[in-house]
Design goal:
CATH superfamily of the largest domain in chain A: Thiamin diphosphate (ThDP)-binding fold, Pyr/PP domains
CATH class of chain B: Alpha Beta
Strand order of the largest sheet of chain B: 1-2-3-7-6
Oligomer: heterodimer
Shape of chain A: globular
CATH topology of chain B: Rossmann fold
Number of strands of chain A: 14
Strand content of chain A: 15-25%
CATH topology of the largest domain in chain A: Rossmann fold
Order of helices and strands of chain A: EHEHEHEHHEHEHEEEEHEEHEHEHH
Radius of gyration of chain B: 20 Å
Distance between the termini of chain A: 46 Å
Order of helices and strands of chain B: HHEHHHEHEEEHEHEHHH
Chain lengths: 325, 335
């Protein structure tokens, strides 16, 4: 199979869906003439024209609201919010206009829009926040976080075809990752986790850029004879609870890894779900979370180690749960 | 007798004028009666009374066609009546019963009736203005001749969403008409305290679209101005901002104590939109006192019948709260 980078896979998904369905259009800042800051919309303007590939003014709230209205009246807009921190401006439109549209119309109308945005990971204080947990808290939204090129394409196509509003969160650290991607359009269903590593000793749940970190940790730990099962849920809403529960029933130990802040992070939800499930009786150690300890992401790399979880933190947490009791 | 009024739309006939009068009167009767029922505890909620402002929603919606859409503000009850929603339907929505359009999920002023071209407005003042622009853009992209009409108040015109939406509508040449109901108060704060300009219509200039001040107490003037703007949008010439100067005779919401100067309210009551049109109809021999009385009695009778029917409707099954959060059942979300 040929390989593509993550951003190229996303671009191919957009192009193929726009070819397939004339209701699909894209809009956002710097996406048309420039092709997107991370080249995700490159070439779309030339192929589909300015009616369907729209450079917008800097108006995050306005463009998400616009996308909701267009979706309600039959279109399939894909909005780009250049990075996650900017989405704070559009929260009303996402939380109220988009998320509640199906409910208040009792299904007579719905809002099939996709809001694509990106976690920068390491930017500045104002461009590194990972806010996925906010969206998981709002009924009516789906939250998708692909970790590799194959899923990026398949999940974006699923998101575009999905009848409900989807917050589609990419990651800067992943844009240049290469991976095998089928040429024809395909879907990866929302709500199905995958297991990039199988193991019997510890379950590690990680998403987005942390999947690769967890895989690297698993490979190192294999040398010590510790079998780590890495689960990438791929989508947080819907969440493949059964897969995680089944894995913890097998391993009896759980480590959750995300780059977002620990307090109120989605990892807490995963931990709670496991303790509420039949896996509770199988737990042999406290659940551990590897996450940002509750600080803004600083600019200086010297300040990064405690702020940004990495492979060593995952390895440490796995050793801890193995050593417990 | 046909007559020609205003600058746009088809000529209004005698029948049209009488029907506009009836719609405004129905809105007034409904609001006043509902407030009494709310006070008595017969309805679980009140409404945001539009008494005094009836000409705006009726005039703006009257000439719209089946392909056109509107998003009412929380006070634009008249948009519902003029688009054909019945008093029974809105009472059902207020009661949240199983017969209501959302089967109990939202109330009357956040209701949508898609088959009558009404999108539900959210509870966030000004939040629906960009949504209206998107709706208009969709109509244009789909090749429809439809136009979107967005209603909001003077307070919403201070929100960032208003400014972003007008700018977007102008650059995208979206077929949308922005109808600002300037009733001079943002809930309790006088408009003059919240903005340093006299006319909200002037804001249109900053976005490269026409802005017009309209007498919001004159239903025919509102009709004509809206039809002019709708025609412009339909011809692909882009959006328009209409500022309808109006006044609400009652407090923002029943529980709000009224602190506006009594003489100000009295002065505006002299320009009651229903009486203004009523006098004209009477002077021109189109509708006399007896005719008005019979019209009011018919509305009251329909309203009494509607409340009885609405109260007799079953309530939704509690389990229905899980429906239409997503296409899939809520439990399919996993957590």
């Amino acid at each position: 199979m040929r390989t593509l980078r993550y951003n190229q896979a996303l671009c191919e998904a957009l192009r193929q869906e726009m070819d397939r369905d004339e209701r699909v259009f894209v809009l956002g800042e710097d996406i048309a003439r420039h092709g997107g800051v991370y080249r995700v919309t490159e070439g779309l303007l030339e192929r589909f024209g300015p009616e369907r590939v729209i450079d917008t003014p800097i108006s995050e709230s306005g463009i998400v609201g616009l996308a909701v209205g267009a979706a309600l009246l039959g279109m399939r807009p894909v909005v780009e919010i250049q990075f996650m921190d900017l989405i704070t401006i559009a929260m009303d439109q996402i939380v109220n206009s988009a998320a509640k549209a199906r409910f208040v119309h009792d299904g007579a109308l719905h809002a099939p829009l996709v809001v694509r945005t990106m976690n920068l990971g390491k930017g500045t204080v104002y461009s590194s926040q990972e806010l996925e947990a906010w969206f998981t808290h709002v009924p009516g939204l789906k939250v998708v976080m692909p970790s590799d090129p194959y899923d990026a394409k398949g999940l974006l196509i699923s998101a575009i075809r999905d009848p409900d509003p989807v917050i589609f969160i990419e990651h800067k650290a992943l844009y240049r990752i290469e991976g095998e991607v089928e040429e024809e359009a395909y879907t990866v269903p929302l709500g199905q986790a995958k297991l990039p590593r199988e193991g019997d000793d510890v379950t590690v749940v990680a998403w987005s850029s942390m999947v690769g970190v967890a895989e690297a940790a698993a490979d190192s730990l294999a040398d010590e004879g510790i079998g780590v099962e890495v689960i990438d849920p791929r989508t947080l809403v819907p969440f493949d609870r059964e897969r995680v529960v089944a894995s913890v029933c097998k391993t009896g130990r759980l480590v959750i890894v995300h780059q977002a802040v620990r307090r109120g992070g989605f990892g807490a939800e995963v931990a709670a779900a496991v303790t509420e499930s039949e896996a509770f009786g199988y737990l042999m150690a406290p659940i551990r979370r590897v996450a940002n300890p509750g600080v803004p992401v600083p600019k200086s790399g010297a300040l990064h180690p405690p702020a940004l979880p990495g492979e060593a933190d995952v390895i440490g947490a796995v050793r801890d749960v193995m050593a417990y009791g | 007798m046909d007559r020609k009024d205003g600058i746009g739309g088809r000529e209004l006939t005698t029948k049209d004028l009488v029907e506009m009068y009836r719609l405004m009167l129905q809105s007034r009767c409904f609001t006043e009666q509902v407030l009494v029922w709310y006070e008595e505890g017969r309805l679980p909620q009140g409404l945001h009374p539009s008494v005094g402002q009836e000409a705006v929603g009726v005039g703006a919606c009257y000439g719209l066609g089946p392909d056109d859409w509107v998003i009412p503000s929380l006070r634009t009850a008249e948009a519902f009546w003029t688009r054909g929603v019945t008093m029974l339907e809105q009472l059902n929505a207020m009661l949240g019963n199983a017969a209501s359009v959302s089967r109990g999920k939202e109330t009357s002023h956040h209701a949508g009736y898609p088959e009558r071209g009404i999108l539900a407005g959210t509870g966030i003042v000004g939040g629906s203005i960009p949504v209206a622009v998107g709706g208009a853009l969709a109509l244009k992209m789909r090749g429809s001749e439809g136009v979107m009409v967005s209603f909001f108040g003077d307070g919403a015109s201070n929100r960032g969403d208003f400014h972003e939406a007008l700018n977007l509508a102008a650059v995208l040449e979206a077929p949308v008409v922005f109808v600002c109901e300037n009733n001079l108060y943002a809930q309790t704060v006088p408009a003059a305290v919240g903005m340093a300009i006299e006319d909200i219509a002037d804001r249109a200039m900053g976005y490269g679209m026409p802005g017009r001040v309209v007498d919001g107490q004159d239903v025919v003037a509102v009709y004509a101005a809206t039809q002019g703007a709708v025609g412009r949008a339909r011809r692909g010439e882009g959006p328009t901002l209409l500022e309808c100067k109006t006044y609400r005779f009652l407090p923002h919401y029943p529980i709000f104590e009224e602190k506006r100067p009594a003489e100000e309210i009295e002065r505006w009551r002299e320009r009651d939109p229903i009486e203004m049109l009523g006098r004209r109809l009477e002077e021109e021999g189109l509708l006399d006192e007896q005719g008005k009385l019979e019209m009011e009695e018919a509305i009251e009778a329909e309203l009494q019948e509607a409340i009885g029917e609405a109260e007799g409707m079953p309530m939704p099954d509690p389990q229905e709260v899980f429906e239409n959060v997503y296409r899939e059942p809520v439990e399919a979300m996993g957590l």
